[in-house]
UniProtKB/TrEMBL annotation:
Domain of life: Eukaryota
Family: Belongs to the protein kinase superfamily. Ser/Thr protein kinase family.
Annotated binding of ATP, by residue: 735
Protein name as annotated: non-specific serine/threonine protein kinase
Reactions the enzyme catalyzes: L-threonyl-[protein] + ATP = O-phospho-L-threonyl-[protein] + ADP + H(+); L-seryl-[protein] + ATP = O-phospho-L-seryl-[protein] + ADP + H(+)
Enzyme class (EC, first level): transferase
InterPro entries per record: Kinase-like_dom_sf, Leu-rich_rpt, Leu-rich_rpt_typical-subtyp, LRR_dom_sf, LRR_N_plant-typ, LRR_R13L4/SHOC2-like, Plant_RL_S/T_kinase, Prot_kinase_dom
Key word Magnesium present: no
Membrane topology per record: Single-pass membrane protein
Length: 978
């Protein structure tokens, strides 16, 4: 015994020394007591980063660990039962020694910046009921041991970087008998959703959304009878929605959106009588909205957008879902009417009504104004909604966003919209709205964005828009606005985007633009602005998009634009009259993806390097005096030495040339006087044929990019017309005749003969021609504003009253010249809107003389074997007898006049049988004139105080128009028009 005692003492001493040297070793083999808890907490503290010292100031040996921040102990045994440290800004990792807190029931380390894996030892905590590690940066798989903890009630691991899959049937047992809530959302978990969740009989909430789960939704989930929250959205799930989901009678919120589910919405979902939130968006669901779904009367959020649903929206949904707050069914294939709008007035909590990007075709009902004043967003864009905007929309005082764009709306913008004081964004773009922009819109002082682009609005930009001090986005592009930009707009210091392109605005860029320090996008293209490009543009250093193209700016590019190199990504100054050289600083435009300086009067060397070394970024064509930049297709610049020698040679060459020119001038002058002495009349215009330049076929191929479809302007039975860019920078129209059509070849000779002799400001001018055995083409003056046809009959274009009168006057001047002032009478025989072309100043030019005829004398006519012309525009006797005369053109001009002011084609479907356009107008005179005039035109004529004055004016116009038509037939109107 005496020898045994030293041995036992030595053994105990060794154990004590080992314990002292390894105090933080997990004590799996020794009893867990408060010393173990202390060791575990200290090990936890050592593994985490505590940048704000929230643990360092409190977790010290001077105080009991039961008083440390986030630590809670049991009263009887002083053992740690809870560790709650959310929002403590802790970094580092989770120590596995935390598993030695054997009495731990609550572990909450959420909303920190912890990294590394979740220790698998946590799964051995026998009393753990709550585990929350959400909102960290933990990685790796979820330990399988966690899925076999009989004590767990709530688990939240969402918003981490966890990966791996859920346990399968071959893994350790999946036993969570007390589990009530589990959230694994917003991680990177993969694999399928295990049906083992059905074993969790007490499960109430399951969130697996925003992961990468695949496969189908397990039908077994329908057996979790106590489930009230099921979030499986934003995964890669396929298959159909299990009908068994309809058995979850206590379900309150169901989110399956953002997957690839297909098939129809199960009728069984109508059994979810307690469901409030139903989200099935962004799938491939088909079929219609099931009527059985109306049984789920507690629905307050129905989110079905981004599917392929068809059919109509149930008319009684507002009655069935009185608690509805959000209805979002955009981006589907829904059709039908808007009759359900009336039932929605029963939903007094409705906040979002989003029906955009469907195929709904109906008129906006007045009942729209009966919707809840709580409605924040009304979004109906991209449908087939027709009619006028009801003024009752002004009753929706709670609106924040209103979007009715991309529909078929007509009429004016209701001034009642100005009552929407809280409205922040309004878009009425791409519709057929007309009239003036109401000045009352300036009362909507809460607006951040006003988008009215691509309509038929006219008049001036209201000065009152400058009162909307918070306006950030203003787009009035592609309308018929004119006059200058009001100065008040330049006072909107918060304006970020201004798009006024595609109008007829004029004036110059003012100095007040300097106020717009936060400008990001400025588009003033396709207007009539003139003057120098203001140097204040250089102060807009935040700008990324600048488009001043297709205007009349002149002068040089201001050097102040150097300061835009920081942010500008797109710059377009093309189709102006800008001269001077290209600033060398443009080579520093580092973020630029497009620079267009084409078709100006720029000269001198092209800067080297930077963006000018990339031909896909820079466009400089149409500036023939530029030089350098071989990659961009320009000739090299002359060297200074060559220039000096050339100047030296000019000293000797120029004087003899001048002398010769003077002698020739004197000789020509004397010759002309001699001719005048013999003959007083002017020389024949045939002499002008010698001045017509013949262009080679090869140049036309280059100018039209080998006659590509991209340059095709129009195609007829005899010819095709291409837009062409000649080598000297001139933009032209090339009319290429069909060489296989013999009548087309005969038409070429006649047309060239006529056009080459004619010079008048209202006739399309011939520039050149190209002819060989297999190819015949005319090079004509290009008309950038297209034809009268598109301006009358396309909803994207609009001509006001003055413009229409000017066009008709231009056409009349053209025919006055052809019929009376040309040496020979020229009859066109095919006058119609498509043959009236408009140049950049909206001046009309009559085109297409391919079937014109020359007549020797003033009153001769000719019988034609064919009946050229277009049905509806030909005089009746012209089509029946083939007799050609000037009266036929006069008749066509009269029909063109009626069409211009009624906007009705003579071939309209309404003119069948005995009724014609002329007869229709005749019957309307004088009592119903307002009914036949273009409705859009009436809305623009606001200078009259009442319908009586307008009626009288239009009746007088109709009288004169009808007389034009009757004049061709040698008659007067039966009602005594004079």
């Amino acid at each position: 015994m005496e020898g045994l005692i030293p041995t036992v003492v030595l053994f105990i001493a060794i154990q004590f020394i080992l314990l002292f040297l390894h105090p933080l070793q997990p004590a799996m083999s020794r009893p867990h007591n408060n010393f173990t808890d202390l060791e575990s907490l200290l090990a936890f503290k050592a593994s985490v980063a505590d940048p704000h010292g929230l643990l360092a100031t409190n977790w010290t040996a001077n105080a009991s660990f039961c008083s440390w921040n986030g630590v809670r102990c049991s009263h009887r045994r002083q053992r740690v039962v809870a560790l709650k440290l959310p929002d403590f800004f802790l970094g580092g990792s989770i120590s596995p020694h935390i598993a030695n807190l054997s009495f731990l029931s609550f572990l909450d380390l959420s909303n920190n910046t912890l990294t590394g894996p979740i220790p698998g030892a946590i799964g051995r905590l026998p009393r753990l009921a709550l585990l929350s590690l959400a909102f960290n940066s933990l990685s790796g798989p979820i330990p399988l041991s966690i899925f076999n903890m009989s004590s767990l009630v709530k688990v939240s691991l969402k918003m981490n970087n966890l990966s791996g899959s859920l346990p399968s049937d071959t893994d350790p047992p999946f036993m969570l008998p007390r589990l009530q809530k589990m959230s694994l959302s917003e991680n990177h978990l993969t694999g399928s959703i295990t049906p083992n969740f059905a074993r969790c009989s007490q499960l109430q909430g399951l969130s697996l959304s925003f992961n990468n789960f695949s496969g189908s939704i397990p039908p077994e989930l329908g057996n979790i009878t106590g489930l009230n929250i099921l979030y499986l959205g934003a995964n890669q799930l396929t298959g159909t929605i299990p009908a068994s989901i309809g058995k979850l009678s206590k379900l309150n919120r169901l989110e399956l959106g953002g997957n690839s589910l297909q098939g129809v919405i199960p009728e069984e979902l109508g059994n979810l009588l307690d469901v409030q939130y139903l989200g099935l968006a962004e799938n491939n669901l088909t079929g219609s909205i099931p009527m059985a779904l109306l049984n789920a009367s507690k629905i307050d959020n129905l989110i079905l957008f981004g599917n392929n649903l068809i059919g109509s929206i149930p008319a009684t949904l507002g009655v069935s879902w009185p608690q509805l707050e959000i209805l979002n069914i955009r981006r589907n294939l829904l059709t039908g009417r808007l009759d359900f709008i009336s039932s929605l007035s029963n939903c007094r909590n409705l906040r979002h009504l989003i029906l955009s990007e469907n195929k709904i075709s109906d008129f906006l009902p007045n009942s729209l104004g009966n919707l809840s004043t709580s409605l924040n967003y009304l979004v109906l864009y991209s449908n087939y909604i027709k009619g006028r905007i009801p003024s009752t929309v002004g009753n929706l005082s709670g609106l924040i966003g209103l979007d009715l764009g991309q529909n078929e709306l007509v009429g004016e913008i209701p001034s009642e919209l100005s009552r929407l004081k809280g409205l922040q964004g309004m878009s009425l773009s791409r519709t057929r709205l007309s009239g003036y922009i109401p000045h009352e819109l300036g009362l909507m002082t809460g607006l951040n964005a006003l988008i009215l682009e691509e309509n038929a609005l006219s008049g001036t930009i209201p000065h009152s828009l400058g009162n909307i001090s918070g306006l950030q986005i203003l787009s009035l592009a592609a309308n018929g606005l004119f006059s200058s930009i009001p100065d008040s707009l330049w006072s909107l210091s918060g304006l970020r985007e201004l798009n006024l392109s595609g109008n007829t605005l004029d004036g110059s860029l003012p100095q007040q633009m300097d106020n717009l320090k936060f400008f990001d996008k400025l588009d003033l293209s396709k207007n009539r602005f003139s003057g120098n490009i203001s140097s204040v543009l250089g102060n807009l250093q935040m700008i990324t998009y600048l488009d001043l193209s297709n205007n009349s700016f002149d002068g040089e590019i201001p050097s102040s634009l150097d300061r835009l190199v920081i942010n500008v990504e797109y710059m377009n100054l093309s189709y102006n009259r800008i001269s001077g050289t290209i600033p060398k600083s443009f080579t520093n435009l580092g973020k630029l993806y497009s620079l267009d300086l084409s078709f100006n009067k720029l000269q001198g060397p092209i800067p080297e390097g930077g963006v000018f070394s990339n031909s896909s970024i820079v466009s400089l064509e149409g500036n023939p005096t530029l030089c350098g930049a071989f990659k961009l297709g320009f000739s090299p610049c002359p060297s200074p030495s060559n220039s000096k020698s050339n100047l030296h040679l000019l000293k000797y060459i120029l004087p003899p040339i001048v002398l010769v020119v003077l002698l020739l001038s004197c000789f020509c002058t004397r010759l002309i006087f001699r001719i005048w002495g013999k003959k007083l009349n002017l020389p024949s215009e045939d002499a002008s044929l010698n001045t017509i330049r013949v262009i080679s076929y090869r140049e036309l191929v280059r100018a039209t990019n080998n006659f590509s479809e991209a340059n095709l302007v129009g195609r007829g039975s005899f010819s095709s017309v291409f837009k062409a860019y000649l080598d000297d920078g001139l933009i032209t129209a090339v009319k290429v005749l069909n060489s296989e059509n013999q009548s087309a070849l005969r038409s070429f000779d006649a047309e060239y003969c006529v056009l080459s002799k004619i010079r008048h400001r209202n006739l399309v001018r011939i520039i050149s021609m190209c002819s060989n055995l297999d190819f015949k083409a005319l090079v004509l003056q290009f008309m950038p504003n297209g034809s009268l046809e598109q301006w009358l009959h396309s909803h994207s274009y609009y001509l006001n009253l003055l413009q229409r009168i000017n066009v008709m006057v231009d056409v009349s001047f053209a025919f006055e010249y052809l019929h009376h002032y040309h040496p020979h009478v020229v009859v066109h025989r095919d006058l119609k809107p498509s043959n009236v072309l408009l140049d950049e100043n909206m001046t009309a030019h009559v085109s297409d003389f391919g079937i014109s005829k020359l007549f020797l004398g003033d009153s001769q006519s000719i019988l034609s074997a064919t009946a050229p012309g277009t049905l509806g525009y030909m005089a009746p006797e012209y089509g029946s007898t083939g007799k050609v005369s000037r009266k036929g053109d006069v008749y066509s001009f009269g029909i063109l006049l009626l069409e211009t002011f009624t906007r009705k084609k003579p071939t309209d479907a309404m003119f069948d049988g005995e009724l014609s356009l002329r007869q229709w107008v005749t019957r309307a005179y004088p009592s119903a004139v307002l009914e036949i005039v273009d409705p859009d035109l009436l809305k623009k004529v606001l200078i009259f105080n009442g319908n009586q004055a307008l009626q009288l004016l239009l009746a007088n116009v109709c009288r004169r128009l009808l007389n034009w038509v009757c004049l061709a037939r040698g008659t007067r109107h039966k009602r005594g028009f004079r």
